[in-house]
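hey can u check if this looks right to u? its 747 residues, i copy pasted from the old doc so theres a chance i mangled smth
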Amino acid sequence: MATFLYKLGRLAFRRRGLMALLWVLVLGGVITAASSAPPPPADTFSMPGTESQKAFDLLKEKFPAAGADGASARVVIRAPQGQDIAGPERKAAVSGLVSDLTAAPEVASVTDPYAAGALSKDSTTAYAVVTYKVAATELTDKEHDALDQALDKARGSGLTVEAGGDAVRIEAAMGGAEGIGILVSAIVLLITFGSLVAAGMPLLTALIGVGVGISAITALGSTLGLSATTSTLAMMIGLAVGIDYALFIISRYRSEIAEGRERREAAGRAVGTAGSAVVFAGLTVIIALAGLAVVNIPMLTKMGVAAAGTVAVAVLIAVTLVPALLGFAPVKVLRRIDRKAVNGKPLSARQQRKAAKAAARQKPNLGTRWARYVLRHPVAVLLVGVVGLGAVALPAASLELGLPGEGTMAPETTQRKAYDMLSESFGPGFNGPLTITVSAPDASAAAGGVGRALAGLDGVATVSPAAPNAANDTAILNLVPATGPTDHATEELVRSIRAGMGGIEGSTGADEVLVTGQTAMFIDFSKTLDDALVPYLALVVGLAFLLLMLVFRSVLVPLKAALGFLLSVGAALGAVVAVFQWGWLADVFGVKEAGPVMSTMPIFMIGVVFGLAMDYEVFLVSRMREAYAHGARPGEAVVTGFRYGGRVVSAAAIIMISVFSGFITEQNDMIKMIGFALATAVLFDAFVVRMAIVPALFALLGRSAWWLPGWLDRLLPNVDVEGAKLGDGGAPGRARERDLHLADSSR
């Protein structure tokens, strides 16, 4: 591996004009293809194999005119305090609202609250259901504006009017989180490299990689069914790893220049060593993202595969375009990248000896000093790290999962106001009705019996009369629970109904009775994620374990990498529960209302954070492995790894934390939760697990850390990530001699 990438790096450096032209052509080609491609399909959500999805598909087939996939809005109207919504004046205003809604573009139907009996018992509140001909993702500003204007006109008559549903425009005012992340990244890179050109290279290559990946997704959208939101995860992860991978290769190039190597040789060795780590780190991210297919939710599968493809592009750019761009950098810029070189040329033997003596006198950097401290106090560092993360992870034992809905939106939104008004006037379960489908030769009669049976169950508030289709082979019942859609009792009610369907079907003559609706779909979605969590974790960690064992030629190194990752993710989940579920420090982070943690958070964190965590593990430990393979003792290897990799890994982690932290400033609590979770997970994993627990374990294990059974050593192919086959030209020997005095405490 190292030999091949070494040759590739030298070739890219030598043929830098051709290599840069090839990537420009690739970028231009995919942008052209994306601009001429048909529009991507609308977002669709499906869960194959679940009862909710089966019932939903049945509704689309048996009730095509109902527009099962069309957008809808539920408009809630409340009379002024002390007045009756059925009074003549208020009734005229509500009728005018219904007329305005009916005349709005793309509206299929609007229910009249008075004709439908949609009035509260105290006659203060009514609601109208607006059904659209198209899906929510196909609604334009024209339709949204018409709805808003109708609501504002009704409010002008003195009514309190709010609306919920997927047809209502969501005011997603982004706070410039992406710009904040890129700005912080640029500052960190500038501090790390000390040169505008060198700092700009990782940003440039990352943007090119994201451009290629996102354009390719857009170009293939209509062919592969990739919606516009499929690229969301690809953009975030592609930008993150693109910066990281270029950062590591450029940093290694600096080190090779400092060793006195000629520029093309330095580029080749940087790609051969750091590039090997990039390839295997990229593979761990690709495994984590593509593994989302295990969940068996097409939307997540497409997002994961698209993001994995973007990561693959980032790896290719890192090992080809980055060395080519290094070749374009003028000599004076190279001197700013590392001033120890003389005009970018190799040092003479005399200069090399002087440089080695100067390096020996040089004050150890922060990474070296920290490594030496950990080597002196491994037990204390290990205990503090493990106990500290364990304590932070304790709240995760109380984790409650749910999906974001209108009941979790900000109190000032119209959706939340409509939700609260309906709960107050019609009961908490009114916001989460269940749809019961009944299939039978005489669906109307069978559904009547099903309705009577369901009405007698505990936890059921009301059951509507049956509504059969034209063929009378399928009927619909609407069941309103006595508890809210996120209440645990509602989930138990759904399970109870499904468990007792066998008896109900037998006594009513129904062929099949299914439960669906938004509440049931949320319940099925959460269960699908719960069932997939362990298989997904086993797949991702298992494959990554094998990959890291291949890279590091060790059993214990990948084992502690995986265990450390689980510890950091547990701590991050604990922090999420404390802040977003319990409400600790809610004011500090701007959390408006505590509630359940988003159901997708655990599996999402595993996929994203595992990939980034293994990046840091590979880059830091591969430098230790390289030193150990060239003859360094275990303690020396740890010092060498931190001397050269500690600062770079820290910079990469700070960049990622900054990018994710930017989303904490957003108004949407779900976006805020994702940003907080990812930022804390990277913080814990990079600075506690990789920077403290990992070196402490290396210090305690010594040579045992690199133990590999002989039979397994013979069985595994040698991928040579450390570049042992490249030949050292004396450089590694000098590096080892220079580091000996830094590791006295480890002898």
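Residues 518-552 form the longest helix (35 residues).
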